[in-house]
Amino acid sequence: MRKKLLGVMSLLMVLVMIFTGCSQKSTADESKTEDEKYKVAFIYVGPVGDAGWSYSHDAGKEYLLKEMPDVEATYIESVPEGSDSERVLTELAEKGNQIIFATSFGYMDSVMNVAKKYPDVTFIHCSGYKTDKNVATYFGRMYQPRYLSGVVAAKKTASNVIGYVAAYPIPEVIRGINAFTLGAKSVNPDAVVKVVWTNTWYDPAKEKEAAKSLLDAGADVITQHQDTPGPQQAAQEQNAFSIGYNTDMSQFAPEAYLTAPVWNWGPYYVDTVKAVRAGTWKSAQYWGGLKDGVVALAPMTDLVDEETKALVAKEEKKIIDTDWDVFTGIIKDQEGNVKVQEGQQLTDEELLSMDWFVEGVEGKIAE
Asked: How many angstroms separate the CA atoms of 317 and 291, rounded?
């Protein structure tokens, strides 16, 4: 009887040990799952410290981390467009990142090439137009706040000459120049917009010199499609006025800065990551505007009078609350040819492929 009792007790101890071991293993596995972060990566064309384009995307990344603490987000800055970006994208995919945000137009073909090799990774490309099952594009209708900033510039200029320091002659930049000019001409028919190309996104010295050449040509307000405060600093040094881009850069030229068309990427990044994780994400081409909040006009400084601020608020409300948009006819090109008939609007396809200047722009679109 005693032997049987000992046998039963031994069996019970073995079962307890097995059960306890399984429980510990299960708890450890659950802990590991909970501790694992959802990996997201970003590649930037410039340094995070540019105070402009790359800085705005990095601010969006930080917003994502704040809203989703279980996300691990890494970034690689100053990645050249071309073969280098393809190598970096491949490395990020190999490291287990489930979503990769490529934040410059010139990364588009590299994204498409790498995405084919990693069908289980989601690639989101900023400002491009090519898509695939695991590739989407995203951008904002920056031309809307550009239009509003044109109103500000044209109400401020005394010489009726506004200088525009522009990066590359691609549709995105051309569209912005045209929208700015339409805004300026809407309140000051005598205003002209002089364009100088730098063929760079990030070159503080070159951008500053381009602004100086425009100031020497009679401009008393400088605006830009560049990633540094260089053009604004040039304006301040010559007692002119400036309009920035990407972020509120007022600290770099406080005596010149009026406002800036700015980006707010954070909410888009959060929505996208949530959709991919939930399995509801589908490839698409996102293009949000003032109504979505992905683009905005930064607060105008005290250098802008109250009349202008009220006018801008009225125009902004019209864009947000009605069907009217910036590229509504009649619109003529530089040669005076009607490109958009009265009451008609350019389609998104036409906007995304824009390769001509509106009336009022002084400059050429280089090949």
From this structure: 9
For every residue of 20-38, DSSP letters joined together read HHHHHHHHHHHHHHHHPPE
pLDDT one-digit tens code per residue, 258-267:
999 999 999 9
Task: Please identify which residue in the block is written with the tokens 């402009």.
Answer: 52
Residues shown for the chain: 367
The C-alpha atoms of residue 191 and residue 180 are separated, in whole angstroms, by: 11
Q: Where are the domains of the chain?
A: 37-140+265-288, 143-260+298-362
Give the CB-side neighbour count of residue 108, counting CA atoms within 13 A: 10
8 A C-beta contact, residue 301 and residue 251? no
Of the candidates 158, 309, 293, 300, which has an alpha carbon nearest to the alpha carbon of residue 239? 158
Q: Report which of 160, 171, 242, 161 is spatially closest to residue 195, judged by C-alpha positions.
A: 161
Return the CATH fold of 37-140+265-288: Rossmann fold (3.40.50)
Q: Supply the pLDDT for residue 34.
A: 43
Rg (C-alpha) for the chain, rounded Å, is 26
- The SS3 assignment for 44 reads coil
Contact 226, 198 (CB under 8 A): yes
Tens of pLDDT, residue by residue over 278-333, are 999 999 999 999 999 999 999 999 999 999 999 999 999 999 999 999 999 999 99
CB count within 10 Å of CB 109 equals: 15
Angle, in degrees to the nearest 10, between helices 143-156 and 306-321 = 160
CATH T-level topology, domain 143-260+298-362: Rossmann fold (3.40.50)
Contact 94, 87 (CB under 8 A): no
Same fold flag, 37-140+265-288 and 143-260+298-362: yes
Torsion angle, alpha carbons of 230, 234, 239, 240, to 10: -70
State phi, psi for 266 to the nearest 5 degrees.
Answer: -50, -55
Give the residue ranges of DSSP H helices in 36-170.
53-67, 83-94, 108-117, 143-156
Residues 85 and 79: beta-carbon distance below 8 Å: yes
Amino acid at 82: G
Average confidence (pLDDT) over 17-29: 41
DSSP 92: H
Distance CA(225)–CA(223), nearest Å, equals 7
Asked whether 207 and 200 are in contact (CB, 8 A), the reply is yes
Query: Does the reported pTM lie above 0.90?
Result: no
